Amino acid sequence: MTFSIAARCPRTGMLGVATSSKALAAGSMVPYCRAGAGAIASQSFVNPYLGIDGLVLLEQGLAAERVVERLIESDRGRELRQFAVVDKDGRTAAYTGDRCIPWAGQVFGGGYVCLGNILVREMVVRAMADSFERSLDEDLPERLVRALEAGQEAGGDRRGRQSAGILVVDREEYPWCDLRVDDHEDPVPELRRLLGVWRREHVPFLTVMPRRDDYVPMWENVLKVRDSIESQLEQEELAAEEPAVKES
């Protein structure tokens, strides 16, 4: 029902998953990522516990291939499942059940897996892989969205379009980038728009966000931002009051 990519950035160690589907809110069910452990995309009559339990196994130190083996063993519905695993060292593994609706399968590359089911053709995941490999100089969120764009351009989901999402983790336990388009007539371009908003409005705050070992990094900068917001609000409120004063 979906085309996705799970990947690790070799430069930064970031881990992420991006997905798009003709299903509601694919971004809420497909991606599973944990800093310092790995990334999992779980789809096709999705079993969320493949992602949930897979992250636990990755955190315990199991390699991607062993995680896939353990997850397949634990799921009696394995014939309908599809999932991919990338561990913290960039090792990859994936599984596509025999009864996934065609086209269904995966393409492996260095530190990433592109996978999909109910696709118009195999070229969807191959186009994703080509795009991902051509964007080595970009950050991981950008590379993942470009891969989705390439997959959609190559045909995407046989049933149409509805949702898209991206989840990326860096060093902290909270996401570095977590964006979703749950129900939209053209979800991948909308995800691209949200990524631009994220860069403009959220990225500047990431350097001052709390860290596990330091809740107040660059605290003086945080206080300056706080004061700037308050000052701007006061000016806007004064400006709104001026017409009323003039009228009276």
Could you walk me through the main structural features you see in this protein, from its secondary elements to its overall organization?
The protein is α+β, with helices and mostly antiparallel strands. The chain has one domain (2-203): Aminohydrolase, N-terminal nucleophile (Ntn) domain (Glutamine Phosphoribosylpyrophosphate, subunit 1, domain 1). Helices cover 40% and strands 23% of the residues. It contains six helices and ten strands. The chain has helices spanning 48-59, 64-74, 123-134, 140-153, 187-206, 219-247, and strands spanning 2-8, 15-21, 31-34, 38-43, 82-87, 92-96, 105-109, 112-116, 163-169, 177-181. The strands form two sheets. A six-stranded antiparallel sheet has the order 7-8-1-2-9-10, covered by helices on one side. Strands 3-4-5-6 form a four-stranded antiparallel sheet, covered by helices on one side. A hairpin with a 2-residue loop joins β7 and β8. The model has no long low-confidence stretch (mean pLDDT 96).
End-to-end gap: 63 Å
Provide the β-strand percentage band.
Answer: 15-25%
Please state the structural category. alpha+beta
Instruction: State the helical fraction.
Output: 25-40%
CATH T-level fold name: Glutamine Phosphoribosylpyrophosphate, subunit 1, domain 1
Which series of helices and strands comes N to C? EEEEHHEEEEHHEEHH
Q: Tell me about the largest β-sheet.
A: 6 strands, antiparallel
User: Spans with pLDDT under 50 lasting ≥5 residues?
Assistant: none
